Amino acid sequence: MSKPMAVGVGLGVGVVAALLMTLEMVVLRFVLGIAGPPELVGDRTAPLLGIDLFFSLIGFMGGYNQLKQLGVGSILVGQVVAGAMIGVGYAFLTERGRGRGGWWRGLYLPAIRAVTVLGLSAWVVSIIALWPVLDTNFRGLPPAQASVASALGLFVAFGSFGIALLLGYRFVAESVEIPRPFWTRGDLSRRAFVIGAVGTAASLVSGILLQRLYELATFAYDGLRYHDLEPQPIVPNDRFYVVTKNVIDPRVVRDLWRLEITGLVEHPATYRFEDVAALPTVTQETTLMCISNGVGDGLMSNAAWRGVPLSVLLNEARPQPGVMEVICHAVDGYTDTVSITKAMEQSTLIAYEMNNVPLPEQHGYPVRLIIPGLFGEKNVKWLTRIELVNYDAKGFYEQQGWGPSFVVPIRTHFEGPDLSQPVRPGSLVALKGTAFAGDRGVAKVEISTDGGQRWNEASIEYPGTRFSWAIWSYDWRPSAPGKYELVVRASDGTGALQSSEERGIVPEGATGYHRLVARVEA
Ligand SMILES: Nc1nc2c(c(=O)[nH]1)N[C@H]1C(S)=C(S)[C@@H](COP(=O)(O)O)O[C@H]1N2
Ligand SMILES: [Mo]
Prior knowledge:
The chain is of the alpha+beta class. Helices cover about 35% and strands about 20% of the residues. About 45% of the residues are buried. The mean pLDDT is about 95.
């Protein structure tokens, strides 16, 4: 084969082999929940990005969902580009061997050896590089099995790429020895055409599956906010805000899933779902708020969670002296940490019901953590392993530089009525909203209609619990026309007044008062 032709064939076969590998990764992901590089690389790198870079990337891309798509897309493209390059290299080596010993009908031993060594090294390197997230499995396989499954998935993927490259190249190269017309078997262009058809078929099938996966993807609901002109004490499950790092959320098979207690404990334990469900339960209203929830934004919702206090499981496992923190691992490879003190509080729950029904998939089925008073990210969904350690461990987002405090500050919001249109002087404006103070309870809500100079106490319509928001109302009857600046603030159960300091979201969550301008016109 001429050099340019070898380059073309190597490139083509490399691309096709990479497409077949992609197809197989998609199938493994679809059927067995095995995560491949398209998801694992992002999960491995996201925590390493500094908070500022992460935040500006989200801003640059126009949202977290767009950033996720860029991540997955560039790995998918990268795999095909790498496949093409390896294909060209392989073709060069093989053609150099033509006519030498070890060359046999398009296969050349040193080239095969090179591809094998490259494949095995890629496998080892990827296992090492992806080690922290290798225990990801979107069907909920327990961590150790999940790591083995991911490693095997990579092996099969890289292995099949190598084999497809070898056989595909041989299939085309062999025909050069026996040139025949296009339409007869063995002809070069005909064989190249077959390879092209295989590649097209692989891209078509991958395309269909990717399309299906795209429909299942979190893009449709990640970042869902709760807003209501009449805020409900308990937010219906399908309106509860959603935040997830995933491109496609886990769909855990409950009978495969286990909850493990590991690390510095006297009695490591593994629970099946039935074992967890058999333990004594509590039902506890708890409001969650994302650390990224800006003042006035809707990444905050309240639900009644039913589950087992984490302390029940920790006491059964008996923590060893010196334990500082608990690392909570989820099936999606997400981790977050909580101090052993907070973990042992009665209100820290392993929850498996949300508003009287099993946890919905996007809220962490079958089991999630509920930690009152700390930002949403600590409430690990799809929980699978609890690891006790004697050092200050850092979770997924904390590694980026969020925190160090994850304590929810007091937050108050206006919700209704809609004040985008002017109101008539003398009419009744029934203001309504939410107030939340972590695990300290809401004691008092105040409203100002003059930009914060004078304050009047609002009525508490729904007091909530120590761990939940309160719903407040305030009947305002503006008499004179004009522009009014409405402000709301609250005090928590310890007597502390909400801070008016306007602090941004990064790195410990926003503070400051929610302000609205109402126009009163005759
Ligand atoms: N396993 C896992 N748990 C997770 C996350 C995640 O991406 N994976 N996101 C966290 C973040 S940042 C928030 S704000 C809450 C959101 O919980 P919700 O979607 O049930 O409202 O889940 C937290 N728990
Ligand atoms: Mo969050």
